[in-house]
Amino acid sequence: MIASLSGMLTYKSPEGIVVEVNGVGYQVHVPVTTFYRLPELKEQVTLHTHTYLRDENLLLFGFLSPRERQLFVLLLGVTGVGPKAALNILSGIELGSFIDAVQREDTARLVAIPGVGKKTAARVLLELKEKVAAFALLDRIPDSVAPSGPSEDALSALVNLGYQRAEAKAAVESFWKRSDPPPSVEELIKGALKILIKG
């Protein structure tokens, strides 16, 4: 799996961009929210990518932050939502606004996104409400917590993000072992996410 790309931006349009890495041009599909934050042509760019295999064709989807990439993956897990629909949703709403809308069960806000009907909005709210709570948790958790609980709190957050408990636990333990002093919950989540994204 290609988890990230760092190279020169050689082409960009709302339909897709090309990033050149060591002489190879990678076509990457990006949401509009990412497109408008891209650097100028011939400048360096780093994207967090998701590799999607469809009909023997390998498609790359790119985002400027790991959290946007993770939200895209979560959307792919929603019944009836494919990569095109997930990209469309991320194009029509900022990350923070989406999380807020899901937590408040704001169907009207989701339906306001072009291409999102009431049935899709209802499925998104039903299947993602608990999972997006982990995104908000990253912004709310304190710098330090009781020493007995940070690893379990981090593990719970990663499971809510859609990771399997076994792989999330392995990533948390791996980051914990290499940390000195012991990390906070926030540091654990961020460190474990980096390990999981790199595969």
Question: SSE layout and pairings?
Answer:
Layout: E1 4-13, E2 16-21, E3 24-28, H1 32-35, E4 44-54, E5 57-63, H2 66-76, H3 83-92, H4 95-103, H5 107-111, H6 118-140, H7 150-160, H8 165-177, H9 185-198
Antiparallel strand pairs: 1-2, 1-4, 2-3, 4-5
Helix pairs in contact: 2-3, 2-6, 6-7, 7-8, 7-9, 8-9
Describe the protein:
This protein folds into 3 domains: 4-63, OB fold (Dihydrolipoamide Acetyltransferase, E2P); 67-129, 5' to 3' exonuclease, C-terminal subdomain (DNA polymerase, domain 1); 150-198, Helicase, Ruva Protein, domain 3 (Orthogonal Bundle). Helix content is 50%, strand content 20%. The chain is built from 9 helices and 5 strands, in the order βββαββαααααααα. Strands 3-2-1-4-5 form a 5-stranded antiparallel beta sheet, with helices on one face. A hairpin with a 2-residue loop joins strand 4 and strand 5 (57-63). The chain is globular and about 45 Å long. The termini are close together.
